[in-house]
Write a structure and sequence with these properties.
Low-confidence stretches: none
Number of strands: 0
Order of helices and strands: HH
Structural class: mainly alpha
Oligomer: single chain
Helix content: 55-70%
Number of helices: 2
Mean pLDDT: 89
Shape: elongated
Distance between the termini: 61 Å
Radius of gyration: 26 Å
Largest sheet: none
Length: about 70
Amino acid sequence: MRLAAELLFWASVAAIVYHHALYPPLLRVLARRRTPPPAAAVPADLPHVTLVIPAYQEARFIAQKVRDCAG
């Protein structure tokens, strides 16, 4: 029983050390190795989108909902 408790303790310590001390530098190294994302698409290259807003008796609010979704 003591061995199991010790193993659990050291596994917990290792997980905490990894999380706080090793994981952030590892992420930095991996981020540097990654290629930069491609340039943003030109608006002419973007697909057309249809927005469907389900509305029932919402004539007073539909214009504001469309404006909210557009920007």
